Structures are given as C-alpha cells and as structure tokens.
Amino acid sequence: MEKDNSVKTMKSAKTLKTAREAGYFGKKMLTDAIKAQEEGHPIGWSMVSWWQGDFIAKAMGMHLVYPENYGAFCAAVRQAEPYLEIADSEGFPNNLCGYARNCLGFAKSLRDNNYVIPEGAPGGGLARPVLLLASGTACDARYKWFQSLGRYLNDVPVWNLEMPQSGVKEYYLKDNKEKNLRFVVKELRNFVSFMENLLKRKLDHDKLKVMLDQALKTLNIAWQVDLLRRAVPSPMVSQDFWSVMIPHFYLPDDPEAYSFYERVYAEVKERVDNGIGAIPNEKYRMMFSELPPWHSIGFFDELSKRYGIAMVMESWNYHAPTPMPEEELDGVTDPLEIIARLTYHKWMEHNEVAREFDTSPGFFNAAYLKWAKEYRADGFFAHPLMSCRPATYTLMHTRNSLEEKLKVPGVVVPGDIIDLRVFNADEGFSKVEAFVETMDHYRDLRKQAGMAW
Amino acid sequence: MFVAGIDIGSTITKIVISNGTEILASMATPTSAEHRRLAFRVMDDALASCFLSYNEIEYIVATGYGRINVPFADQQVTEITCHMRGINFLFPNVRTIIDIGGQDSKGIKVKDGKQVDFIMNDKCAAGTGRFFEQIADVLGVKLEDIGEMSLRSKNPASISSLCTVFAEQEALLRLSEGASIEDILAGIHKANASRIHSMIGKLKIEQDVAITGGGAKNLGLVRALEQRIGFPLVVPPEPLITGALGAALIARETATKLTPQQLKEKKAKRRLEAVTFFDDPKRGSEIVL
What we know:
The complex is a heterodimer of chains A (about 450) and B (about 290). Chain A has about 450 residues and is α/β, with parallel strands linked by helices.
C-alpha cells in the first residue's frame, strides 16, 4: 500500500516529553514481532484481554501483536481507510467494529501477497500469526472477528478466553468471587495445555512468575501516575494518556516499560510539585469516555486552546487497576491464579462504588462517579462510537448518572475510533463551545449544594 | 446604546438592531456562499433602515454556523446560547426550546435564564429545514405551503423512513399508490415530529416548550409536534430572528460591562472592508484538520 503523504493529520502535540517518546513501544511491538518471525519464533495476534492470556503466551516464547492497537496506529497515521475499504468490499458491514474491519482488511492484503507483509504497511505491518488469541471480555463483536479471520489466515487456530462479569448483587453473593476465580484458573489451565500442544514446549512457571512480578510493578507505577493527575491544574491530559497507556496496557511485563513509567512519574510529579498544568489556561476539567478518535487526537489540543479544557481522566478500562490488596495474594503461589486475580480485580474493582450509588457494573459508570469527585470534574465528554456497541451503550446512562447524582453535566460528540469518515470535528467544537456555558451553570449548582468542587 | 446581533444560519441570515429596550430593525435574507459579503450587505441595509452607522453600534455579536465570517463582529457566540437568550427574553417561563434550523435541529433546556442542557441532531437531515425543502421539491409544492397543506389531510400516509433520500422515494411511492399530496405531507410531518420528539425527549421535556427557527413557521410541523408532545407549543411572533435577538441581548449585556475606552478599542478592531471568503489571506492561518 502506498503511503499517502497528502493526507492531512490532526495529531496531538502532547504536553509531556515522555508522552512524545511513547510511540516507541507501539513500533517496538510490531518490529520485534517481524524480527522474531524472521528468527523462527511463533507469532500470535492477541485481543486485549486485560492480561489474561498475554503473559502465558509470552512466557512460552510467543511474540504477540495486538490488532486493536494496530487499528489505532493505522488510524493515528490516517492509513486505516484503505483497509476499511478492503473490508467494505469483502462485504463486512461498515457498522462493524473499526478495529475488526481494519484487521480484516489488513489480513486480506496479507493473504493476497502470499502472506508476505505488503510494502508500505503502516508501522511495518502485523507478522503472520500461528495463533489468534481471542477474549470474551467486554465486547461481543470480538467473538466473530477472529473467527472471520479464518477466511484469510488458513489453519490458524483461534483460542478464546472467558471472564465472568457478574452484577453487583451476584458479586457479593457468598463464594461468588472464589467460584469465578476457579473458573478463570481452569480456563487458563486449558489454555496452557493447548499452547503446549501447539508449540510443543512446556510452560516455564518460574519465567511466568518473574514476568508477573514485573507486570504488577509496572501497573502499580502507572496507577500512581493516575493519582498525580488529581492535582489542579492537571499535570497530564488525555492527549498524553492515549500515548502513555501503550506500555502498561500491552507490555507491563517488559522492564523497559517500567523504566519508562518511572520517567513519566518523575515528569508528572515535577509538574505537580511546581503547580504546572499540562495546558497553560486550565478553566474546565473534563472526563472522557470511551475510546478516542485515534485519527484526530489533536481535536483535544484545540479544545484546550479554545476553551481551556483539560481532559483530566479517561475511560476506566484502559487505566491500570488499583493495586490488589495484600491479602488478595497472600499465600497464592500459582502464577495462573495470580493472573486470574489480576484480571478479575481489574473488572470488578469498582463494584463497591456501584453498590454505593445503586448502579450496576454492567453500566460501566461507577468509575466515573468515583472519579468525578477525586478529579474535580466539571464535565463529562461522551464519545459514542459508530462502530462499537459496548463502548457506546453505557454512555448516555453515565452522562445522566453524573448529572443527577453529582451535578456534573455531559456533552455527546459521536465519532469513531478508526473511521475518520464519521467524525465531524467542527460539529464537536460547536457543541463544546455551547457546553462551556452549561459547565459554568453546574459549577454554580455544585457550589450552592456545598459540594467540594 | 445601540447594539446588533447577526445570525448567519445555513439557509437564512438574520439581523436585529436594538437600542437596548426595543428592536429598531430586523431583517432576514437567504444565506449565500459568500457569507462575508452578505454579512456586510445585510448590516448595511439594517443600519440604513434605522438611520444608524457602524460606529454608532456599540457592540455587535455574531452567531449561527457562519459566525466566524462576520469581520465586523466584536464577539462570536454559539447559536444554542443565542436562541436560549432570545426565547428566555420573550417567554421567561419556557423550560424547553426546540430549534428547527436549516441544517440541524436542537433541543435546549433552560432554568433561571441559564442553559442547563442541550442536544443536537447528528449527521442527518431528518427533522431539519433541508429535509422539508427536499420533500417540497419532490412533490412540486412551495416550501412555505407544505405546513398548511398537511393540515388538510384526512388520512396521513405512512412514511417510515427518515433518511432524506429514502423518504423522497417513499413519498413518490405513496403518490404512485394514489395518496394525496396533503396526506403524504401529513405523514412526513408526523414522522419528523416523532424524530424530533425522541431527540428532545433525552433532555426530559419540561413545560413551557417553545419552538423557534425556520421550522416554527411550518404550522404543520408545529401541530404534529404538539400532538406528539401532548401540549401546545409557544411560538415567537417572528421565530426566524430569535437567535439574532439573543445575540443582540448578549451584545447589550456585554457592552454595559465595558468602559467607553474598552468599547472604543473594540470598535477600532472591526474590519469594515468587504473581504471575500475566497481571497482573505487570514484564512490560511485557521485550523486545518
């Protein structure tokens, strides 16, 4: 595919030096996999599974690349459209997940080139896999996405990992958590057996344990960066986060990722200590949900410039979880159980807040109810995705909950993660310009109600 | 103190000149591609009609989607805010505003003169003036007649599609089946009222409800909406100029907060030459997506 240099981009300038360096990790995943393949190592394409399957595959010598991350990468360099068009012409509906369509388009171009990555593929492309590692967590479209890849990647097996997602009432039932964890551990044991059969090698439990220790350290420091972001003015904004998240989200077991976060932490801490904001004119603090328009992250720079809006926190599911309580891991030596507890904790950690506000975790709004106070949010920016139901169906409910329970209003600007054709930045600016007045009004209401911010 | 509000909408450009207590002049004229020339022409005409000059206008606020193309404006404000201010001035008891413009429709919630929430249609012509223009064209009737005609229907046709293209096809299909134009128009208005109602419903409708914008001049749409919502709508005497009126009110409010020196400095920054949209070198510095 020829690179179209005439495409106008709307990249973010990013406010942190470390955020500007973070692109290295995305490229590293892609180039390492290509190099590994050349050296004869197995490659897997993995969905985001909140670390459920990643560590096991990597501990067994498999190099993983992430089609969802690749979709975001292609969109960010405005090179996704050709793959979307291939997917369209293959008959995939244009309201199907943008990540899936980008991946399906790429897979077809890979097959059409005899499984040699076509010249000019963004970031070097995705190396040919021997495994498709799927996940049932969060998203329904993903069940069929990897299955559909079978049309283009003949004889590549698909393995799907599941994670129970119970409601608040069920979560607090006696033994519910332990039963669910046992289910996940069983899932992981089956996966290990499958992998040992596929790769003809045994899982090195000690290696896996070392990787897990490293991952927990990385996730912990990434969470500490989030804590720093509560400061006013905000020392780090979404434009930074969407780059900075890559190492902890995809490579937490990589010591290089940990070193990177040490530097992020130092840079953000220095800003906090000196009262320096990420944007020079912070007037409004907003939370963002769900996934961003990867093709137009610069949109948020404009919101900062025009209206003094700092996006102080983003979708909960892409942030590192709070550290697990010490007793959670007391006496747990089986690395598979540690993985199960980590992923389960990530998905259930906001259940206490959901119970407090009498809402369901299935609405995905509890984290925002908690953060609105902690991050002193003036508003909620809802970004419904034209091609993603799971990232959209909760947004209006979250918007209403924040307004009713905490007097934090929301604005809705629809778009898409990948598909530039359905995002209208001008319409977004018009809405936000009018929304500024709404935030002023609710700020007065919170003050009258004696709220803390 | 003389102030002005100018609302450059997608279809119609409106202006209000006020002395702070009453409207001295108001005008509405079709918007063309050359917003900047048009803005000057409309302003010149409005000023002439009340024997004023640019320099006598203390403050000018521009609104509407073409608001950035008014070189002599002292301030730009969104049409959502301006419509809210205009309606709130005319009808202080109104809590919900429906604005049917040429290319979009909006719902605005008001409380104590403050805009507390709003919603806009997204990327779809349904429920906007453009939709009705297209349908009038397809049916060969005048846009200004379709509302009255729809009220003469005895058996509204069933129109299920709200995509402009498909609704056109559906209207033609109903014609071929023998439905009268009145019945088709009634069906079209009913379908659009349903669409607008479901959008506004997200704001939790509270009485009184006002309708403004060009759509408020369509009696068929007003009646269909009233039927859908379940109570009468408040309609301004001249719904087209509500946004410009709101802009003029904001202009007055802002001007009274400024010192004579500050007003003088603002005026000095006005660009009074008729720059065209296409050869203005300043365009080059605007944001490129």
